[in-house]
Amino acid sequence: MIALGAIFAVTNALAVPRGSLTPEQEKRAVVLEHALGCPACGGKSVADAPAGVADHLREILRERIQLGQDDGQVVDFLHRTYGTFVMAASPNPISPILLWGLPVIFGGWAFGVASILRQKPPKTPQDSQGKG
Question: Domain 2-87, CATH 1.10.8.640 — does that match?
Fold first, then answer.
């Protein structure tokens, strides 16, 4: 626990303030913030996430940009450090609809098929002649 506190203290001491990047570097940082996902916020981009880990990611990518790394190097570092979670920013808005809608659609389809299969077959003229 003490080691974790020390890591955050060192990271905060090395943090790059927002105004210390050139305008071009700042644009790159903003683009990356929108492209990367917050590992704690379920699909929100780093730019839109309120979590502390998103703040930390914003600081790291600014540090990396200030060190002269290109976008690919920054993304690779974050991917290696945080895993695939950072690669999944801003999911397609259709995804949640499909996630929740497909089971409902499938359930309705299954109910319809079951209803059709449970119906009694229509009476044929042979059925009415044989019973009379």
Answer: yes
Q: What is the pLDDT along the chain (132 residues), one digit of tens a residue?
A: 555 454 545 454 445 555 588 999 999 999 999 888 888 877 788 888 888 988 999 999 999 999 999 999 998 998 888 887 777 654 555 566 666 778 888 888 999 898 888 887 777 767 666 555
Is the pTM higher than 0.90? The answer reads no
118 burial via Cβ count (<10 Å: 0-12, 13-18, 19+): exposed
**Residue ranges of the domains in the chain?**
2-87, 92-120
Q: Residue 105 is encoded by which pair of tokens? A: 């659609």
